[in-house]
Amino acid sequence: MESIGVLMTCPPPDAYLVEQLEKRFTLYKFHSIPDKAHFLNSNKASIRAVVGSASAGADAQLIHQLPNLEIVSSFSVGLDKIDLAKCKERGIRVTYTPDVLTDDVADLAIGLMLAVLRRLCQSDRYVRSGQWKKGDFKLTTKFTGKSVGIIGLGRIGLAIAKRAEAFRCPISYYTRTEKSDGVLINIGRGPHVDEPELVSALVEGRLGGAGLDVFQDEPIVPEELFGLENVVLLPHVGSGTMETRKEMADLVIGNLEAHFLNRPLLTPVL
Amino acid sequence: MGVSNTNSDKTQEEEQQDLPKVVLLRPPPAFSLIGEESFASNKFQFLKTYDSQLPLDQFLSTHSHSIKAILSSAGAPVNADILQLLPEVGLVVTTSAGLNHVDIPECRRRGIKIANAGHVYSDDVADLAVGLLIDVLRKVSASDRYVRQGLWADKGNYLHGSKLGGKRTGIVGLGNIGYEVAKRLEAFGCVVSYNSRKKKPYVSYPFYHNVCELAANCDALIICCGLSDETRHMINKPVLSALGKEGFIVNIGRGDIIDEKEMVSCLMRGEIAGAGLDVFENEPNVRKEFFAMDNVVLSPHRAVFTPESLKDLSQLVVGNLEAFLTNEPLLSEYVDNE
């Protein structure tokens, strides 16, 4: 399979994934190619697969430029960066990495709730900067028993609900009301939230706090948020554990191999 | 006020003066955190030794006939010397769950009842233990620092964390707090086992007779026990070695339970993977070595400090005092051998 060209459209998300792809295929790292148009012109015929992630996948324009594209294997469970309609039209297979990352993302969602309500990051800074010697840290908000609203009760949403129940949190669907003591956690995708609006709500105190693992234009994070103590900012690490990234990489590879060996795909979307 | 009562022409103030007294040797943190009004009652009056110019023993002797109870908090020991000056005292109420500062045998000898904070703090402490564990495993605080320094855009992705699900978590001290931690961790798919003074008959988690054996069979230790002569420096070099290079430790008990100097060495040599700490041996003077470590999460001993818990505490304290003064059963009487 070494002659099969695989185009990685995202910045390499994981060393193990790249290593495994390079062992089996001819891997092109699109992100670091300076003249992308020239590259595509010269190599498009040999590219039969795309590997994407939450950062970049395969939009209509790219699909159009790859006449021999057969499969898009995404290192993610989110499919927002893939033009599924175009893939369906062209008969291009699409696979993703469901289930293997559910626990990690749900764990992080609860971790963010605790970190925001109990000000874990801020109090860690408080100790490191020597401020504890001058006085006690302030009161923070209890988490147990707080009502939790979940947008999207899919696999991840349900896993979050199960964990929140162990803290006796009543679970409900999120309602779109402005609550000055409400806290927003986003472990989904940046565009779910109107980011400029979120930033101004936080800066103006109209929202009680936020735990954000995803942003509209990663890795750019609105700097107005850096100075806020009721906000926790993470660099899209929802599935970022050694264990889970390996499982995801194995799924990406497994799906590509299955396709090129004419076997049933492991986790197809299309 | 209404019609003057022929039985008593006392003013409200005088009536207050007649109330049984509850003495305080130092202001409890909760007074300043949520306000003294939360602890007010029409059945007793507080007497504050710290508001008086008199030397302590003189103050206590002067008022000893009316002092029926002591409201104590850590930092002001209730010892034999104090108790000797207060023969009318029948109850010691503390604002803490721990009773290190109370001479329990002396109280027993004098027939003095003891009431502590019971379980009001358990949820908050358990929440913090879980929060610290997720933080150290998933590098939440370290990643937040990374983003705030602008490094995500400059340097790309941060380090991978470690998955919580499936981790073998060892609870050291399966009291009320330990049990609340265990229940939460189960929901994350952790495998829970424990070491405690005694095996708990109604609990299905595997029990280990000694903490070293527990450490050898776990990926993370959560210290939930109190500080006593037996538990001081219980987490020592052999335990930390047994926990190992991939092992994590979270402490929401007391700093002295861990041999802190040894733990710092282990962390610096990579002999354990990381730690989440709410308590330290010499608070608030935390060892500087911690400040350079990214695999440690530091919290300034505030596991119980939420307005919700402090409100619950105030109701419990008042409830205990009022129950005692009206001969009702105490709400959270401390009984030996929990």
What does this structure look like?
The complex is a heterodimer of chains A (270) and B (338). Chain A has 270 residues and is an alpha/beta fold. Chain A is 35% helix and 13% strand. Chain A has helices spanning 15-24, 36-43, 60-64, 84-90, 102-117, 120-128, 155-165, 195-203, 242-260; strands spanning 5-8, 26-29, 47-52, 71-74, 93-95, 148-149, 171-172, 183-186, 209-212, 231-233. Chain A starts with a strand and ends in a 10-residue tail after the last helix. The relative contact order of chain A is 0.15. The model of chain A has no long low-confidence stretch (mean pLDDT 93). Chain B is an alpha/beta fold and 338 residues long. Chain B contains 13 helices and eleven strands. Chains A and B meet through helix 5, helix 6, helix 7 and helix 9 of A and helix 2, helix 6, helix 7, helix 9 and helix 13 of B.
Which secondary structure elements does this structure contain, and how are they paired or packed?
The complex is a heterodimer of chains A (270) and B (338).
Chain A: E1 5-8, H1 15-24, E2 26-29, H2 36-43, E3 47-52, H3 60-64, E4 71-74, H4 84-90, E5 93-95, H5 102-117, H6 120-128, E6 148-149, H7 155-165, E7 171-172, E8 183-186, H8 195-203, E9 209-212, E10 231-233, H9 242-260
Parallel strand pairs in A: 1-2, 1-3, 3-4, 4-5, 6-7, 8-9, 9-10
Chain B: H1 12-18, E1 21-24, H2 29-34, E2 45-48, H3 56-63, E3 67-72, H4 80-84, E4 91-94, H5 104-109, E5 113-115, H6 122-138, H7 140-148, H8 151-155, E6 168-172, H9 176-187, E7 191-195, H10 211-216, E8 220-223, H11 237-243, E9 248-251, H12 260-268, E10 274-277, E11 296-298, H13 307-325
Parallel strand pairs in B: 1-2, 1-3, 3-4, 4-5, 6-7, 6-8, 8-9, 9-10, 10-11
Helix pairs in contact in B: 6-9
Keywords (chain B): NAD, NADP, Oxidoreductase
Domain D-isomer specific 2-hydroxyacid dehydrogenase catalytic (chain B): 46-332
EC number (chain B): 1.1.1.79
